[in-house]
Design goal:
The protein is α/β, with parallel strands linked by helices. Helices cover about 45% and strands about 15% of the residues. Bound molecules: 3-methylbut-3-enyl trihydrogen diphosphate (2 copies) and magnesium ion.
Amino acid sequence: MSLKPSINLEKLPKHIAVIMDGNGRWAKEKGKNRVFGHKSGVGSVRDVSEACAELGVEYLTLYAFSVENWNRPKLEVSALMELLVRTIGSETETLMKNQIRLKTIGSLSSLPKRAQEQLAKVIEKTKDNKRLTLCLALSYGGRNEIVEACKSIASLVKNSEINIEDITESTLNQHLYDPSIPDPELMIRTSGEYRLSNFLLWQAAYTELYFTEEYWPDFNKESLYKAILSFQQRERRFGKTSEQLKAL
Ligand code: IPE
Ligand code: IPE
Ligand code: MG
């Protein structure tokens, strides 16, 4: 039986972020190579994006490639880049059909030219889609993002455009890769690893974390419903006491 009807649509997370991990181990257990695992992970991306669009989740950020992932074997990196280009091309129609707008965060200039061009094309084509914003974190590093934001703010100070005293959390927020995307309420990591791996470090200050043993290629719509149900059972206190929240 599907878990979908148990979800309270009034209490949906507006933004879900996912660390899609375990493609390599999934493939290895099947006696296949790691790239086969990455290819199989594309199906889960499609399922989870569609499930979010159907439910009414507004933002979905997927960690697809970290800055640290450039240190993987050359062949794996080039296969991942090739897969990225091919998938974006082949999934454009699905994005349009489901009214999904594509965005990216990360150090995009490090990606191969072809990938950059393909991304720019699809971002432009889907820019007016209103149902779900799908944000791909590519060549992304949370520390990098914070350093870049600091540099932009420092140059504003240098040019006397703002005073140091006026720098607030909101100033830093405004200099992140995409300031229009709100902080994620729920972050999911698959494959039984319990770490952030440099993902959304600033934005995850009060995010609810959900870990599952499932490898990414096995993660499907029901797995997402389960994560959302877990989120809906939690009390988000933001430093207050439980009694204070109940008195509201
Ligand atoms: C996640 O799966 C995909 C990327 C990091 C690109 P992995 O490739 O990390 O799979 P494991 O963790 O080695 O199983
Ligand atoms: C994190 O997965 C990055 C992505 C899912 C894209 P990794 O598999 O690269 O993370 P670590 O290095 O094991 O922490
Ligand atoms: Mg991994």
